[in-house]
Design a protein that fits this description.
Elements (H helix, E strand, L loop, with lengths): L5 H20 L6 H19 L25 H21 L6 H21 L2 H4 L3 H21 L3
Helix pairs in contact: 1-2, 3-4
């Protein structure tokens, strides 16, 4: 049985390389017109290759049925809010000292990512859906190890 996406799968990296070459040529002023032509050709070839792809419908027919409010989703809001505030503080700290390699701005940014991941993890009920405590402990330990590794390796 022949794969229905065979030619598309093999032609896609070629189209990607054409677009990558076009992007690379954008830096050269004399080759900029060729770069734009390569980028347009890559976009047209992508549409031709994948234009008749059957996509999942964005709005299924049963999307208008009323749904109840899931109050466990409210765990997302505080975590996302704190993450946004931490990233904003990191940006302000970086603007104050742009020559600093990592420092406080990096720690604030990592903390923002941590709050965002934790709020998504707790709010999505994935914490309650599995009984494998070893797996949950492994991922939490791995995250803490990576944050500690970054904290130790970076100069303040």
């Amino acid at each position: 049985m022949r794969a229905s996406y065979g030619p598309k799968v093999w032609a896609s990296p070629i189209v990607y390389l054409i677009a990558l070459l076009g992007t690379w040529l954008l830096a050269n002023e004399s080759a900029r017109s060729w770069a734009v032509l390569l980028l347009i050709a890559g976009a047209v070839m992508t549409v031709v290759l994948w234009g008749r792809q059957n996509w999942i419908p964005a709005f299924p027919s049963d999307a208008t049925t009323p749904t109840s409010v899931n109050h466990s989703r409210l765990f997302y809001l505080p975590g996302v809010t704190i993450a946004v505030l931490l990233v904003l503080a990191a940006d302000l700290r970086y603007a104050a000292a742009p020559n600093e390699t990592f420092g406080i701005a990096g720690f604030l940014w990592i903390a923002g990512i941590g709050f965002l991941l934790c709020s998504a993890f707790v709010g999505s009920n994935s914490l309650w859906g599995t009984n494998n405590v070893v797996t949950q402990f492994f991922w939490a330990t791995l995250f803490l190890f990576l944050v500690a590794r970054v904290a130790i390796a970076s100069p303040i």
